[in-house]
Specification:
Elements lengths: L6 E2 L2 E2 L2 H8 L10 H8 L3 H13 L8 E2 L2 E2 L5 H4 L2
Antiparallel strand pairs: 1-2, 3-4
Length: 81
C-alpha cells in the first residue's frame, strides 16, 4: 500500500498509522461519507474527496450502499487498534 520509508511529520508511517490519523475513532461500522464528515468535522464534499483518495490508495473500500450513500467498513487495522 505505502512504500517503506514513507514519513509524515518526521515519523515513519505505515497503513495502520496513517489510517489511525485519518479515520476518527467514533465512526459507526460501516460508515457513510456523511457520518465521516461529522466525525472528522469536515464539510461533506471534503469528506467525500478524502474517502475517494483513501479508496484509490487501497486503504478503505466501498462495501455496498445504503440508499444512495456508499458504505465504508472500518479497516481491520483501525477497528482492532
Amino acid at each position: 500500500l505505502l512504500p517503506n520509508g514513507t514519513y509524515l511529520a518526521g515519523r515513519p508511517v505505515g497503513p495502520d498509522i496513517l489510517l489511525g490519523e485519518l479515520i476518527p475513532p467514533d465512526l459507526p461500522q460501516p460508515f457513510t461519507a456523511k457520518e465521516y464528515a461529522k466525525a472528522a468535522r469536515q464539510r461533506l464534499e471534503m469528506a467525500r474527496r478524502a474517502l475517494n483518495v483513501l479508496a484509490s490508495l487501497g486503504l478503505v473500500e466501498r462495501a455496498g450502499k445504503a440508499g444512495r450513500a456508499y458504505l465504508y467498513p472500518l479497516p481491520a487495522e483501525v477497528e482492532n487498534g
